[in-house]
Each structure stands twice: as C-alpha cells, then as structure tokens.
Design goal:
The protein is α+β, with helices and mostly antiparallel strands and 335 residues long. The protein folds into 2 domains: 88 residues, no CATH class; 224 residues, Deoxyribonuclease I, Chain A. The protein contains 8 helices and 12 strands. Strand 5 and strand 6 form a beta hairpin.
C-alpha cells in the first residue's frame, strides 16, 4: 500500500510540473510559435486538472518539503492564470452585449445560425432539418465543398438571397439570407485559398448592417490543406482595420479557429468597437462535438454597440465536429 501511494505521489508531482509549465507558457498565447499558441485552447481542461491535482497533492502529502511547496505554488499560479481568462465567460462578470428587454417597434430583430459542417461530413439532412426547426433569418455554413453546396441549394426556396464561395480545401463558405444582400465583397485576408466576405444586409425599413463572415486557418501545419506557414496570424487584425472605420453597425461571425478568451480587442485591433456575445454568459463550447473532454469555443459571433442579444444557443450535433451556434439579435434604434 505504501509503495502504491509513493508511485501515485510521483505521478502527481510529474503531472503538477507539466501543468504548471504549460499554464505559465500559455501566457505567450499571441506568439507566432504554434505550440505556444495551442496552449491557449485547453484552458478549461488545464484549470480543472490543476485544481484536481492540487487537491490530491494536499490530501496525499503529509510531509511538506520545499519541492512540494513549489508544486503547490506552481499549480496555484496556473489556476490563477486560467481563471483570469475564463472568468470572463461566467456570470461573475457583466455582459458585454446587453440583453434585449424593452424592444421598440422600430428595432429590427433577426436570427443567425452559424455552422461548420465539416467537409467530410455527409449528413446534410440533419443540418437541413435543424434549419427548418429554428427558421433562422441568416444561415452561415463553413467548410462547404461542391457536394455540400448542392445539398444546401434546397434552402433557396426559403432564402431568396445567397452567396457562395466554394472550394474543395475545407474553406468554402455560403450565406443564405431572407434579407437582401446589397453588397458582397469577397476577400482573402492571408491565404488565397481561404476566403472571407463582407455583405451589407438590408431590412425592410431600409436599415442596414455589415456582416463579415470569416474562417481563418488554425495555428497548425497541414500537408494538403491551407495553413499559415511563413505568415503571421493577422487575418483578424486585417478584418479589424475594416471594422474600426465602419460605416454601418457590424456583425462578425465564423469559426475563428481561436478561443479568443476575451482578447477580441487585441486579436482584431478593435478596442471598444467589437464585443463578444459570450462574455458574462457562458462558454458555449462549439468544438469538439465528438470529444466531451476536449471542448472549447471556436465559433464566435461578435457585434458592435448597436446590437443587443435576445438568445444564444448551442444546438444539437449534425454529424460535424462542430456544434451549430444559434443567436437572435436586435439592431437597436440609436436615435
């Protein structure tokens, strides 16, 4: 029994060292080193593991030596680091985007369903049924190849306005809208195979807002798919430059391949301009739908100050490795 306890103690000490180092290195989240960047993703998991290991060490250890004390300090530092980021996605902090409560008749309400379909996924009926159930005004789908584009064409009967930017390397996107799309501008922010686009959406009363759809590449390397090898991860900053000088209220949505953790300002350069719906409300982890233990929020909806939130939901699985995200927003009359 004593031997087993000693082995367990050594394992806990080793895990504590790894967790402490990983937590401290995660502070370099904006480094161009992709390994450091990837430590920013599992903050929820690192926080929970650090807390569990801390409790177990306290229970098991009876003789406290300098090394054990250092381990405790390292774990507490890691827990503090992760808490600093994660607390913004709890109800302990105020929301950034106000909740819509006293709506006026002149306020324009609309809904958006945001989904990364996963190009290899062939369960299109699940998504189409979900769209029929939620009846969103806007549908943004990512990783759309020719097959998915053909399957989603059935939406045209309910969505008379649409735009498709299709490719076969997982970065195709389509937007279906019940509102007129007055303008579509396709851009390739950092990679000529990774499109993003801006559309100006107009309500019946003539009010408009700018909708940016974006799907940057993740901080990894791929053999057959686009990546950011040799490039700075500045797609969001390029987008931010457009938003800072915005002409209309602005909505940004997409699979950002970044957890953000309340650093939207830094990632986009849009200080006091762009706000995260999740702040003050919850994590709404959208990835990985196939792995309960490794989930974090990758799919985001960000808005300028003219918007309020009616509803934010993570929807059911559709065969993809991402859960769809559904939001109901209000474009509030500012006069």
């Amino acid at each position: 029994m004593e031997k087993i306890k000693k082995i367990l103690s050594i394992i806990l000490q080793l895990v504590a060292v790894i967790l402490s180092i990983a937590s401290i290195l995660s502070l370099f989240r904006n480094s161009e080193n992709r390994y450091l960047k990837m430590l920013d993703f599992p903050r929820i998991q690192l926080f929970i593991l650090s807390l569990i290991v801390l409790i177990l060490l306290i229970i098991i250890k009876r003789k406290w030596k300098l090394f054990n004390n250092l381990l405790i300090v390292g774990l507490l530092i890691g827990i503090t680091i992760h808490s600093y980021f994660l607390i913004n996605y709890t109800t302990l902090v105020p929301v950034e985007v106000p909740t819509a409560q006293h709506l006026k008749s002149r306020d324009n309400q609309f809904s958006l369903l945001l989904t990364n379909v996963k190009m290899s996924n062939r369960k299109a009926p699940q998504l189409i049924e979900l769209i029929a159930l939620k009846k969103p005004d806007l549908v943004l789908a990512m990783e759309v190849d020719s097959w998915w584009n053909d399957e989603l064409a059935i939406l045209t009967k309910d969505y008379p306005f649409s735009h498709q930017t299709i490719n076969e390397v997982t970065y195709g996107m389509v937007l279906y809208s019940k509102f007129p799309l007055r303008k579509i501008e396709v851009d390739y922010l950092t990679n000529d195979k990774v499109p993003s686009f801006e559309s100006i959406i107009t309500f019946e009363d003539g009010k408009t807002f700018s909708f940016h759809a974006i799907h940057p590449v993740p901080p990894t390397r791929f053999q057959d798919l686009p990546d950011n090898a040799g490039q700075q991860e500045n797609a969001l900053k390029k987008l931010g430059k457009k938003i800072v000088d915005k002409e209309f209220p602005t909505l940004v949505a997409g699979d950002l391949n970044d957890v953000v953790w309340s650093y939207v300002d830094e990632l986009t350069g849009t200080k006091n301009s762009l706000y995260d719906l999740r702040v003050g409300r919850g994590f709404y982890n959208s990835f990985n739908a196939n792995n309960f233990l490794m989930r974090w929020p990758l799919d985001h909806v960000l808005v300028t100050k003219e918007f309020q939130l009616k509803k934010l939901e993570r929807l059911s699985k559709i065969g993809s490795d991402h859960f769809p995200i559904y939001v109901e927003l209000v474009l509030v009359d500012q006069q």
